[in-house]
Amino acid sequence: MSTATVPVDSLWDRVKGYSPPPRYLPVLATLGLLVGMFAIGGVRYEGFSDPQVLLSLLIDNAFLIVLAVGMTFVILTGGIDLSVGSVVALSTMIAAKTLELGWPPYLSMAAVLATGTLLGLLMGLLIHYFDIQPFIATLAGLFLARGLTFLISIESISISDPTFTKLAFKTVTFGDYYLRWTAIIALATVAIAAYVLARTRFGRTVYAIGGNESSAMLMGLRVAFTKVGVYVISGFCASLGGLLFSFYILSGNSLHAVGTELDAIAAVVIGGTLLTGGRGYVVGSLLGVMVLGMIKTLISFDGTLSSYWIRIITGALLLAFVIVQRFATRRSS
Amino acid sequence: MPETQTGLQRALRHPLVWPVLALVVLLVVNVVAKPGFFDIRMQDGHLYGNLIDIVRNSAPVLLVALGMTLVIATRGIDLSVGAIAAISAAIACTRIVGAGDEGALTTAVMACTYALAVCIVLGAWNGFLVSVLGIQPIIATLVLMVAGRGISMAITDGQITTVHNTWFSDLATGYVLTLPIAFIIALGILALTAVLTRRTALGMLIEAVGINPEASRLAGVRSRTIIWTVYAFSGFCAGIAGLVIAANTNSVNANSLGLWIELDAILAVVIGGTSLAGGRFSLTGTLIGALFIATLARTVNNIGIPSELNYLFKAVVVIAVCLLQSPKARSAFRVRRSSGPGSPGSTAPALVKTGSAA
């Protein structure tokens, strides 16, 4: 069915004969799901079809998008990062505490990013050089980051720094619609990550490790650097996500973002990335986050469904995607 | 002399030496901080003291960890235990509240039986995803971990349900033969598991599946059935743990009940020396691991550190245990040590051990 074998006819024939490359199918399925949910919402609820609803999804889930981007890198190598939720909490707490101590806001942001990146580096080193399973090493990271957060303060600290509040509410308007800066940062992260994965040596090595680590090693690829690198990226993304979250919520609290790592993993899976590694796209993870956000929006527009349905529906979606993935890979192998 | 040396060496090489030593060190720290730590006295017809509290508090983690040990031995993992515990507690509490006679013994028994039956079904569902559909254990159980708390909240309708049933609350706070019932239940399940796995071929079959699923299948082991069974058992254990936790407060909060218990349970299993790579497992090790976690929580309180900092200590323990278990880290340390007088004798058994665990 590929276009090359069909003699070039009219545009319609080419459109009719076009089938997308199979590797894009999962992402397209997620896109279809998102569009379908948006359409259902638009038909059922008044005001749902407003494009601002979509932009608000981006704004509300900016931090989760960034987390999912980092998680995509890790999952593509066949690993997992459980620490991201705790790192988000730690980031909000570091930002709040350092601002309370009177640090300049940009120094405080740098401290947040440095901490997350360092934590990621430590976990990466443990995983690669001591052969500790990613699950366990990042579990230690989860405990460590949560514990450090409690160490800094058990009470919630609010953020009132003018630079932070200004950044938090700064918007870009397109006609009648607006987008906050945090969402633009998140989209920029997605764009950079997509470029890195598709066009750089590092990105190709990430896919190669996910495909088969020993083959990648035998090919002479820089496995050690890349494997540690993905956890550094995930740590950085987690702290950047934490920064965006502190803009969003303007407080530091040791109980922020409990269980967010599950949302991030779910978003990546729903976005079509294979959990065994080697296949997937960051754009899919962006769509996955949007789908999760869309569930929340649908439920809040509906008004009669309780909030716990979000978790049940997320679980059901996760199940559907995992099973479909499983059968897709079984057939191809 | 050589006799005693080999005896000591053999003792040091026993896999449970390090967990036991760690537990002893923790207890010593407690005694140093508070000399009266070990005091146990009789009060109201049962034993009372720090040690009794520790064994009682260790019961939920021990229960979950027992199921987890078998799951991990088959090279799997069960992330959904916290959610299953919440579902179990939610079912039991709503059924007790909804029953005609809320305080009766039969009400409590019926509610608990019903809850545990559902938990076994949920565990079997995990087993179905893993063994029949062939989904990775982490992902398969992640589904229920995400959805489970939602289901639990749907059962309690998002409310914190409080029950008034003395029989039910006895699960956590009652005493039999001067010991906490919760701990006795956990020990009972431990004994049952030990008999089933060590006195029959089941334990060996589980280890075989964990070491090499394909080879064990070719050898005629019904690996599907075994995997299915261990996940159902894990669900059952998580269900009992959920009942004990709910009985402790006489209420169920679907959001927070059993939160992170899966991580504690995995930690207990790992401390006990069971490798996450599957294969050999140690139930005694798991018991010591669960006691260690409960003692750690008590120690942090006892020496006057805010209990929230428990997480920091847990992180340190996870890293330390993993480094001790990691063959690479061991060999790195050994290379440094063997620059001294020769130690070929000590490297050989280590290699054998790592070979069989991997």
Describe the structure.
By secondary structure, chain A is mostly helical. Chain A has a single domain, classed as ABC transporter involved in vitamin B12 uptake, BtuC (Orthogonal Bundle). In chain A, 72% of the residues lie in helices and 4% in strands. Chain A has helices at residues 11-17, 25-44, 51-60, 62-76, 84-100, 105-129, 134-152, 162-169, 181-199, 201-211, 213-218, 223-249, 260-270, 282-302, 308-332, and strands at residues 157-158, 171-174, 177-180, 251-252. In chain A, the strands form two sheets. Chain A has a two-stranded antiparallel ribbon. A two-stranded antiparallel sheet of chain A has the order 2-3. The longest helix of chain A is centred in the C-terminal third of the chain and has 27 residues, at 223-249. Chain A is globular and about 70 Å long. The two termini of chain A are 21 Å apart. The mean pLDDT of chain A is 88. Chain B is mainly alpha-helical and 358 residues long. Chain B has one domain (15-325): ABC transporter involved in vitamin B12 uptake, BtuC, CATH 1.10.3470. Chain B is built from 16 helices and six strands. Chain B has helices at 2-13, 17-33, 50-73, 81-98, 105-132, 137-156, 166-173, 181-198, 202-211, 213-218, 223-249, 261-271, 283-302, 310-325, 327-337, 344-357, and strands spanning 40-43, 46-49, 161-162, 175-176, 179-180, 251-252. In chain B, the strands form three sheets. In chain B, strands 1-2 form a two-stranded antiparallel ribbon. In chain B, strands 3-6 form a two-stranded antiparallel ribbon. In chain B, strand 1 (40-43) and strand 2 (46-49) form a beta hairpin. In chain B, helix 2 runs parallel beside helix 13. The relative contact order of chain B is 0.17. Residues 340-358 of chain B have low confidence and may be disordered. The chains are: A mainly alpha (333), B mainly alpha (358).
